[in-house]
Amino acid sequence: MVEIERVRVTEIGGPEVLTLVSETLDPPGPGQVQIRQTAIGLNFIDVYFRTGLYPAPLPLTPGMEGAGVVEALGEGVQGVAVGDRIAYGSMPGAYASMRNIPAASVVKLPDWVSDEEGAAVLLKGLTAWMLLFEIGHASPGDQVLVWAAAGGVGSLLTPWAKTLGCRVIGVVSTEEKADLARDYGCDDVLLANEDVAARVKELTGGRGVDVSYDSVGKSSAEASLNSLRPRGHFITYGNASGPVDPIPPGRLAAGGSLTMTRPTLMHYCAERADLDRGAAALFGAMKAGALKADIRQRFALKDVAEAHRALEGRQTLGATVLKP
User: Fold this and answer.
1) What CA–CA distance (Å, rounded) separates 287 from 300?
2) Measured between alpha carbons, how far apart are the two ends of the chain, in Å?
3) pLDDT tens track for 244-301
């Protein structure tokens, strides 16, 4: 056993419930690898678990993605060796200095991807891959609406959509984020306090966009639906403002035979072949220069409450990593 530091949540609530504790970590079990983490990704889903929006047994350790070095192997592990640099993007419990995780959930980092980049990009990059290729099927000439275009997923989704030939209209919360969204490749940028749907219709000549990629949730759902062309696609994949209120099927019909989906990355990477396919697409796009991990904030793991306050306060730009 080894001594580690881990963030524990024993009751749901605000950032103050995030507590750093010292524990012992058992050797990895069958099929597991033990990873010494050098960087941990910060994501809004971490907030959902902390607040109880996504129910989970207590006590819990938040966090879904991280990167580091393999320290030990459990029985039966193949394809990974001690000393390998690895990352994972959809495995709860990331807020720790070391952890044991299934070998089937990790990917090796290419030499040209740093640990910080791996921790910052895998969950968000695989989410962008899922949205563009597995669900949205983005094509040249498509017009798409990207909410939180200067955020973690948006910073990857926007340039990737541009390389596919899409016109991207971004939505952000501040003028500072508007400038950053343009840097990421947005053709047009709207502020969330505008009449987004009316502006989208104006920018698209009254037609509307083909797809709305919406990570905001409750406060943006109606604007997303009203921004779509007939037979457009509403992809709601986040709850930054709270979960979307129930939408009756008749609302989709009235909007022009719209479609709506609420995807979760874990379902799209449940099979090893899917994870490998998504990671290959992501790393390939990074190597080609289509997108990059834009890390704008770094917090020590002990300062995780401060990191959550910044995230919820819309004070972060691009990607954020925690350092054990």
Assistant:
1) 28
2) 19
3) 999 999 999 999 999 999 999 989 998 999 999 999 999 999 999 999 999 999 999 9
Write down how long the chain is: 324
The mean pLDDT of 148-164, rounded to a whole number, is 95
For the segment 206-217, the average pLDDT, to the nearest whole number, is: 96
Give φ, ψ of 96 to 5 degrees.
-160, 155
Q: Please tell me the number of Cα atoms within 13 Å of 58 on its side-chain side.
A: 13
Given a contact cutoff of 8 angstroms between Cβ atoms, the answer to whether 309 and 316 are in contact is no
Burial of 299 (0-12, 13-18, 19+ CB in 10 A): buried
Three-state secondary structure call for residue 265: helix
Q: Are strands 85-88 and 106-108 parallel, antiparallel or unpaired?
A: antiparallel
Task: Decide: 161 and 121 in contact? Cβ < 8 Å.
Answer: no
pLDDT at 1: 85
**What separation in angstroms does the CA of 132 have from each of 135, 137, 278?**
6, 5, 11
Amino acid at 175: E
Residue 311 in contact with residue 42, Cβ under 8 Å?
yes
Tell which residue, 48, 69, 70, 50, has the closest CA to residue 58: 50
Angle value at C-alpha 27, between 105 and 21, nearest 5 degrees: 90
Query: According to DSSP H, which parts of the chain are helical?
Result: 44-51, 115-129, 154-163, 175-184, 196-203, 221-227, 249-254, 265-268, 272-287, 304-312
Sign, CA torsion 300/16/12/2: positive
If we measure between CA atoms, which residue out of 166, 153, 164 comes closest to residue 288? 164
